[in-house]
Amino acid sequence: MRHLLDTRTLDRTSALRILDVAEDMADTQSRENKKLPTLRGKTVVNLFFEDSTRTRISFEAAAKRLSADVINFAAKGSSVSKGESLKDTAQTLQAMGADAVVIRHHASGAPRTLATSGWITAGVVNAGDGTHEHPTQALLDAFTIRKRRFGAGSRGRDLSGVRVVIVGDVLHSRVARSNVWLLTTLGAEVTLVSPPTLVPQNVSQWPVRVLYDLDEALAHGPDAVMMLRIQLERMNAAYFPSEREYSRRWGLDAVRAATLPSDSIVMHPGPMNRGLEISAEAADSPRSTVLEQVTNGVSVRMAVLYLLLAGEREDERGEGS
Ligand code: CP
């Protein structure tokens, strides 16, 4: 794998390879919680132009557990505020020895530009770009669903027959987009539930069913319900019902969660708006996988960095995305 830019072009074999290597990483970590020497001598740069807690720290932990050196770059407080371009910033970091660049950027397509422009030779991982994609979030979500559904026998399996409902602000969500492509590539049935104003215009071209009524979607007994963060910072008043109405019609509370089959899981990528898209009771309930997703994220990102920097040489011709 040369880069990981999206899940839309990630094929089933490559996706399963990442999930299976992540299983190996998780097993190794649970057996002997110590560093692997695999990426000794490699340098991973976390290049973050937008805020992050989970993704940035998770990539840092993943790289360190594989013995790579890590350089963390945040646009705030850097020469970006003096007008330095993405090209000059990336080339400066490559001159310090970056082998892989993990980039989060407010502009959709910035990771692909970095990977294909010839500005740098490092492998590029998309850690979230605008409203486009967040591929490692979708991979850790798929990993979590697979592990919960199939337990110890999950290695090598796809998600055929698994039913996932994704609820909320689909319009602004790169998490929703990456999950739609990845989960359907892996054979899952995906239903989106959203207020009509928060559904993207081109959704008819997506391999999903769209509903506007959350209770109708939950009545089908999905295996996983993934609540999306309402992105108030990207919201136009024209799109959004009042917070009270949103919470009443599209929020997941304990009463709604209780209508689900006993083995259904409740997911959220974080950060959560407690009391808006998800109640505290639902977020903290035994069926919630919110913290499990965070833990799994480290294993998945270890797998991605491993396949990018130490994976099979024959894979290097492909983009992996
Ligand atoms: N889920 C996610 O991307 O969280 P952060 O913004 O904290 O990285």
Automatic annotation (TrEMBL):
Residues 161-308 form the Aspartate/ornithine carbamoyltransferase Asp/Orn-binding domain. It comes from the Bacteria. L-aspartate binds at K82, R174, R229. Pfam families: OTCace, OTCace_N. Keywords: Pyrimidine biosynthesis, Transferase. Pathway: Pyrimidine metabolism; UMP biosynthesis via de novo pathway; (S)-dihydroorotate from bicarbonate: step 2/3. GO terms for molecular function: aspartate carbamoyltransferase activity. This is Aspartate carbamoyltransferase. It comes from Microbacterium murale.
